[in-house]
């Protein structure tokens, strides 16, 4: 069914496949509010909710909302303190969100540690998933506080990174400056028999002007001097790894799409875990069962907090709309803020977009009242398209 102005057939079946509104609503809450608003204006409408995520913040929550079991474990946070992190598990498949252990949200307010933040806890999360029997793991990356090339993650899984005196190097990307030898031979043997997918929405290499430090380091508090330090440290890290028997492709993998994801944890996953990179939204749509849900739908409602240029580059709404368009199903979007032209939306496969700012121009109020405003938007959608 194509979306046009006017009424939609009484046979309409709506699939809500939206991401979170960051800072306001989880993906599950977005689905709940849209469902409530649709049914207020069109009480008989048939609605199916499938909260989605693209591998970043909210990925575990989206998996749990679609039937995965939430598992909690105490792991090492980015500053070395203990935090409680979650992963999701169902039928031998685990969804691990690195931001649960090593994300910016795990830092105390006002605290950033660009040189020393570690991914060690992400490795502990992976080990917990292996202990629980996972033989297929989706590693969602994004929202990281770290720029350590995944060295911390690999160390938690058995790798050794030593300085010239044979001592473990310090945490974070800064510690990699002192790296003299790397040994991946003691990595958890279960990794070899586990299918690991690196799910991300960026294709940056590990180093250079479009690498992990240069592009994302400033978001984690790195000064220009620290960006240069981190980039050099990551390049040194790849050089040392290239000398090991276990990593003959270390230099080539540093240039691979996704190697620079989440401070270079993508590189660590590619070189140490044998992971394969796929766009995060594609992976998550497969894991969450989007295809069968789409087959039942005549209209898809997707969305996220801000529909902007980043949305067009691998974010959840673009992935949902592309999949729906391939099946001939029309898509509309809801968002907090709309910064895309109708032409850009159409190119992405989104016929129309409804923004909270259409109802309330004050962004602070939009954030605070996102739920009620979203219900009002959904009622408008129902009146425009379903009745």
Features:
about 375 residues, alpha/beta, Glycerate kinase, domain 2, six-stranded mixed β-sheet, 13 strands
Structure overview:
With 387 residues, this protein is α/β, with parallel strands linked by helices. The protein has 16 helices and 13 strands. The longest helix has 19 residues, at 224-242.
Structural class by SSE content: alpha/beta
Q: What is the CATH superfamily classification of the largest domain?
A: Glycerate kinase, domain 2
Just name the CATH architecture of the largest domain. Answer: Alpha-Beta Complex
What proportion strand?
15-25%
**Tally of distinct domains:** 2
CATH C-level category of the largest domain: Alpha Beta
| Residues in helix, % | 25-40%
The average pLDDT is 94
How many DSSP E strands?
A: 13
Distance between the termini: 15 Å
Spell out the helices and strands N to C: EHEHEEEHHEHEHEEHHHHEHHEHEHEHH
Gyration radius (Cα, Å) is 22 Å
Across the major sheet, the strand order is 3-4-5-6-9-10
Low-confidence stretches: 4-8
């Amino acid at each position: 069914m194509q979306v046009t102005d006017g009424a939609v057939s009484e046979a309409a079946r709506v699939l809500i496949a939206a991401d979170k509104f960051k800072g306001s609503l989880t993906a599950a809450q977005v689905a709940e509010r849209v469902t409530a608003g649709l049914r207020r204006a069109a009480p008989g409408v048939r609605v199916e909710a499938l909260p989605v995520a693209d591998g970043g913040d909210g990925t575990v929550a989206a998996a749990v909302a679609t039937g995965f079991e939430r598992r909690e474990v105490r792991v090492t946070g980015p500053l070395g303190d203990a935090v409680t992190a979650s992963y999701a598990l169902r039928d031998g498949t685990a969804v691990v969100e690195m931001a649960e252990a090593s994300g910016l949200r795990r830092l105390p307010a006002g605290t950033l540690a660009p040189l020393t933040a570690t991914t060690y806890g992400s490795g502990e999360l992976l080990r917990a998933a292996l202990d629980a029997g996972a033989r297929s793991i989706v590693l969602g990356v994004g929202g990281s506080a770290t720029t350590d090339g995944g060295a911390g993650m690999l160390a938690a899984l058995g790798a050794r990174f030593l300085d010239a005196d044979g001592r473990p190097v310090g945490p974070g990307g800064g510690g990699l400056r002192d790296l003299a030898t790397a040994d991946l031979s003691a990595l958890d043997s279960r990794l070899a028999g586990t299918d690991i997918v690196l799910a991300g929405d960026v294709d940056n290499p590990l180093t250079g002007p479009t690498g992990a430090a240069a592009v994302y380091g400033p978001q984690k508090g790195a000064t220009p001097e620290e960006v240069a330090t981190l980039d050099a440290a990551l390049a040194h890290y790849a050089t040392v790894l290239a000398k090991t028997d276990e990593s003959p492709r270390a230099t080539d993998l540093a240039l691979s799409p996704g190697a620079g994801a989440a401070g270079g944890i993508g590189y660590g996953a590619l070189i140490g875990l044998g992971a394969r990179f796929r766009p995060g939204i594609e992976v998550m749509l497969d894991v969450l069962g989007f295809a069968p849900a789409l087959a039942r739908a005549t209209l898809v409602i997707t969305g996220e907090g801000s529909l902007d240029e980043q949305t067009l580059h691998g974010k959840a709404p673009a992935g949902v709309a592309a999949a729906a368009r391939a099946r001939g199903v029309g898509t509309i979007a809801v968002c907090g803020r709309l910064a895309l032209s109708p032409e850009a939306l159409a190119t992405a496969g989104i016929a129309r977009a409804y923004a909270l700012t259409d109802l309330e121009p004050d962004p602070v109020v939009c954030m605070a009242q996102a739920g009620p405003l979203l219900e009002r938007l959904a009622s408008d959608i129902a009146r425009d398209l379903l009745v």
